[in-house]
Amino acid sequence: MHHHRAAFPGLGHCPDPGTFRRTVRLGNVTAVSGATHPADGPRLYDRAAELSAVARLSARAAAGRGGVLFVTGNPGEGRTALLRRAAHDFPGAAYRVAAPHHRGPWSAVRALFAELAPTPAAGRRALRLARGEGGLARGVAALATGTEAVLLCVDDLHLWDAHSRAALAAAWQETGGRRQDRVGWLVSAARHHRLPEVPGAETVRLGRLTASGARALLDDLCPVAAPAPPVGERLLDEAAGHPGVLTAAVRRLTVPQLAGSLPLPRPAVDDTVLAEVYGGLLQRLPAASRRLLATVAVAALAGRAGAGADAAGTVAYGVGGGGGSAPAGARGARASAEPLEGLVADGLLRRRRGGAVGFDDPFLGRAALASARQPWRGRTRALHAPGADRGIDRPAAAPAPSADRPAPGSAPSADRSAAGSALARSEDHRADRLGPSAAVRALSPVARGRAQLVRGLAALAGGPVMDAHEALLQAAELLRERAPVEASDARFLAMEAAWAGGDVEACLAALDGGAEVRGLERDFADGLSAALTVRLDDARTALARVVAGEGGADDPRLLLRAGAAALVLGDTAVAARIHARALVRARAEHRTALLPHALEQLAYAELRAGRYGRAALAAREGLRTAEATGQHNVAAHQHAVLALVASVKGDGSAVAEHAGRALETAGPHGLVQAATLAEWALARAERGRGLAAQAAARLVPLVRPGPRGGHFALRMLVVPCFVETAVAAGRNAEARDAAEEYAVWAALGVDAAAQAQLARCRALLAEGEASAYWFREAVRRHDSCGNDFERARTLLAYGTWLRRRRRPGDARGPLRDALVTFERAAAEGWAEHARSELRATGGASGGAKDSAAPPDLTPQQQRIARLVARGATNQEVADHLSLSPRTVDHHLRGVFARLGIRSRVELPGVVDGWDAGRREAGGRHTVSGPVPPQRAV
Question: Known Pfam families for this protein (predicted)?
């Protein structure tokens, strides 16, 4: 590459003396115009690919097709230098626009238009157009009316005010579909900034320099005399190819130091250098985020001494998610853990395999330590202090050791330099193979506790949850004396991890310890412990106090805890109300990292109440927010919720997709709760397709007690579904045993709908008029429990039972009531089942008929044809429809004769033709749906 005078952030732009191009600077905007080009432009290093992308953008603008090119990078990696070079090389009019110091609404757009406009009045008119219906694209078009192409270089988009960023995004999205546009947008932003979705936009990401590129930069930084070889090697090694860091490190050295006559600072890339490069980024972060970055960096250093971080500075870190809707306050962890997910979402930290996260830019971790508050600087000093037994949450009394005044007994300065350099290098560099300072091993219990806390949080959010449980319990023990609030939160997070993993004993271990847990937290812990050990009177007393408190002063985290307590008590209406309130508060406070948890809890509460449409809305939004923040375990549970909702609707493909996504994460991460829900959804879909035997086999493990069974909080809730399926599959003995155990559980009164569902189970297992009695009893009990969907299921089962006993007149009333409820609940699969049964009684179904099917097929024959087309055997169809296999065979022969086909192999094509005809007519066929989901906590 032909090199020009360097132009890097912090180094400054040094135009070549031979430059004749006219540059006018006004405020924060530099307008570059004129057609005369210098012989040399700003010099760049290792940026051939980026310059090629700029050339493509310029060519599109010149051809009238415009476009957007995003350039992202970490501080000091050369975003501004690339924009300067692009403006220099562009053949038309180029404008570079930086973020104004004042960031009021529309301030950046106002500055842009002030420079584009020929007069102030024209700029004001364009601004009015941009703020109105015309949008920013029209405002720019009104000013850039010439025939030549225009390049607008927008620097530091992340520092623009929100109004201006929104206007830019809207303009880019609008012009993305237009081909007549002579404006090219070259936009730089910090790597952690989330860029808008723009059709056709290209993104280039700046990175570190190669060894040759770094040497070329070092040579240009030392134009008078090249540095002595040992000095140059050390600078290049410690800067690790970072152009801004290398520039700042060289700038602070004197000529004798560069020549090797005087010693260099140890390390050469020290706090001063990092503060110069990264100080602006860190200062713009909230104080809590800065402290948490420092915590992660401390844990990384501790990990190099054996606490589990990898050599590149990876630490286990994250925030609770584990999934499930554990009632725990972990969702509500009061600790400073919540901003951690925001740092992941912003890209300042990156989640890695197993839930661990680390710094993509390890210099950021060192800079966070250097620029943190005074107590954190004390903790950093403690890493190098002898003994380090005073605790990292208290500043060291002595000044920090330096190269000139090492701490007594501390590791040699060369070792400290090696440890710092290792944190800043990737594993291909020599510094990574150097051992950590021995003094790092002398971390205080608080430092080790916080390191374990972030490890556990990482696994809870996106790794094995029982690993999270162990790390969080260790953190609670280490923190209990010096940081009791964090220790309390660590215990609740450990309980949540155990809950997601389906381990009752581990839940109790987390709940039972810890004198630091007090007040409503103590009530919650005691109440949940009592519920898990079936001391229900004690549980009700303690949890009722938590529900009555409703989280105190509208704190969304504590509201989630109160809502979870309501679910344990079986009050689904109150639980849904409290969780909805928590969601509103989280949104009002912009608690992005808390939203997935709030939405997950709300989705489960709505499921418990039988409101599946609302549950699906919450789960879909929760899935989006969980994926956006990297909370993969939460995402698995939201997929499981959506699978259950899809099984109610009768959408088999959606069940398979969401259940598969849930199980994909649940298996390796030990999410027993998510796996149970996903398997339940698959079984219900199979039952809806008439595959009763297959569905029963899938459900057997879910209702089995013990470690090889399903989740302890869901086992009894699955039993009604299992009883119905097992009876259809001819497994009556197993169904009877499960129903008897369910009767014991229902008597405890922890689920308002349990007695009604127990009566339905007994009706399915009884014979003769005993069945009629239990169906009527089930309907009566449903009337007082408030779950309309479960009542409609019982009415459907009762109407079906009456029809099959040749009492069609009696059957129509229950079937009509069931149909209306299913339609209101958008439970399309169940509604279709009810319509089919109602048609079989000779009554009007009140819904769309299968007009695409041949009119000479009876409703029963249509149902048999559809089930067989979906792969059901004669025995499975008989089980599903309560017929004998001989009767199914008789009907099937009639179907073949009337359709003019010879075997069941031809049925799928015929049924697909029916469905295609119905879609063309505006209808939609769905198969009957299985049992709706329930959720404990």
Answer: AAA_16 (PF13191), GerE (PF00196)
Which helix (H) or strand (E) segment holds residue 314: the answer is strand 314-316
Would you state the pLDDT for residue 920? 52
Burial grade of 258 (CB within 10 A; 0-12, 13-18, 19 or more): buried
Domain with 219, as residue range(s), is: 211-262
User: Could you tell me if 75 and 128 lie in one domain?
Assistant: yes
13 three-class SS: strand
SS3 800: helix
Q: 47 and 160 share a domain?
A: yes
CA angle 113, 61, 34 (to 5 degrees): 65
- Based on the fold, state whether residues 249 and 201 are members of the same structural domain: no
Identify the bridge partners of residue 32 per DSSP, sorted by sequence position: 23, 94
- Encoded amino acid at 480, one letter: R
If asked whether residues 128 and 201 sit together in one domain, one would say yes
Q: What pLDDT, on the 0 to 100 scale, is given for residue 317? A: 34
Task: Please tell me the total count of domains within the chain.
Answer: 3
The four Cα atoms 218, 193, 173, 135 give a dihedral, to 10 degrees, of -100
Cβ-proximal residues to 899 (8 Å cutoff; 6+ apart), any chain: 854, 857, 865, 910
User: Amino acid identity of 821?
Assistant: T
Is 94 domain-assigned? yes
φ/ψ of 186, rounded to 5, equals -110, 115
pLDDT of residue 444: 75
Q: Six-digit token pair at 876?
A: 């499975």
Q: Does residue 254 share a domain with residue 117?
A: no
Question: Under 8 Å CB-to-CB from 433, ≥6 apart: which residues?
Answer: none
The CATH number given to whatever domain includes residue 888 is 1.10.10.10
Domain boundary among 205, 233, 248: 205
User: Does the residue 545 lie in any domain?
Assistant: no
Contacts of 132 (CB under 8 A, 6+ apart): none
- What pLDDT does 931 receive? 32
Other CB atoms within a 10 A radius of the CB of residue 762 amount to 22
pLDDT (0 to 100) of residue 107: 82
Q: Across the 937 residues of the chain, what is the mean pLDDT of every consecutive 10-residue run?
A: 31 30 34 39 86 92 88 92 91 84 77 71 62 59 66 88 82 64 88 86 91 91 86 91 92 88 87 87 80 74 46 35 37 46 75 70 83 43 32 29 33 38 39 36 72 84 90 89 85 91 90 71 86 86 85 74 87 88 86 85 84 88 87 92 87 89 92 93 85 90 81 90 90 91 86 86 88 87 78 87 84 86 76 81 56 63 81 78 75 78 76 63 38 31
pLDDT of residue 642: 93
Beta strand 29-33 pairing with 181-190: unpaired
| CA distances (Å), origin 478, targets 452, 521, 731 | 9, 20, 52
Strands across the sheet containing 150-154? 22-26, 29-33, 93-97, 150-154, 181-190, 65-73, 202-205
Q: What single-letter DSSP state applies at residue 729?
A: T
Joined together, the tokens standing for residue 386 give: 């002898």
Q: What are 422's two structure tokens?
A: 């290792």
Instruction: Give kind and range of the element (H or E) at residue 94.
Output: strand 93-97
pLDDT for the residue numbered 908: 79
Please tell me the predicted confidence (pLDDT) of residue 331: 33
DSSP annotation of 228: P
Say yes or no: 51 and 170 in one domain. yes
Regarding whether 109 and 12 lie in a shared domain, the answer is: yes
Query: Does the global pTM surpass 0.90?
Result: no
Cβ atoms of 891 and 849 closer than 8 Å: no
Looking at the structure, tell me whether residues 194 and 216 fall in a common domain: no
Q: Are 297 and 383 in contact (CB under 8 A)?
A: no
Residue partners of 738: CB distance under 8 A and separation at least 6: 703, 719, 722, 723, 726
What phi and psi, each to the nearest 5 degrees, are found at residue 700?
Answer: -55, -50
Looking at the domain assignment, is residue 809 inside a domain?
Answer: no
- Distances in whole angstroms, Cα of residue 779 to Cα of each of 97, 264, 796: 70, 85, 11
Q: CA-CA distances (angstroms) from residue 79 to 74, 451, 736?
A: 9, 34, 71
3-state secondary structure at position 413: helix
